[in-house]
């Protein structure tokens, strides 16, 4: 696997609106699955599937705390990447002709 493959895997994982929201939610602090479910009102199965994809992409890591599974952003550069994306999106909207 080369760096382009890894880049594509990360962008694909972040390319789904729910996964993007989950990563943004986890930027500040690790959270248990129950908190993620409550915040987004997803089914347990849906949340677990999205968390699995984000973990397989190397974006998230998990840690068992008692009986709860906690997830956190593993790649600290993700915060910078999302900030850059927000700037790109703002630039996109600025270039639209209304």
Question: How does the SSE layout of this entry go?
Answer:
Layout (H helix, E strand, L loop, with lengths): L2 H12 L2 H10 L4 E2 H8 L3 H13 L3 E6 L2 E6 L3 H19 L3
Antiparallel strand pairs: 1-3, 2-3
Keywords: DNA-binding, Transcription, Transcription regulation
InterPro entries: ArsR-like_HTH (IPR011991), HTH_ArsR_DNA-bd_dom (IPR001845), HTH_MetalResp_TranReg (IPR051081), WH-like_DNA-bd_sf (IPR036388), WH_DNA-bd_sf (IPR036390)
GO molecular function: DNA binding; DNA-binding transcription factor activity
Explain the overall architecture.
Strands 1-3-2 form a three-stranded antiparallel β-sheet. A hairpin with a 2-residue loop joins strand 2 and strand 3 (68-73). The protein has helices spanning 3-14, 17-26, 33-40, 44-56, 77-95, and strands spanning 31-32, 60-65, 68-73. Helix content is 63%, strand content 14%. It has 98 residues and is of the alpha+beta class. It is built from five helices and three strands. It has one domain (3-95): Arc Repressor Mutant, subunit A (Orthogonal Bundle). The mean pLDDT is 94.
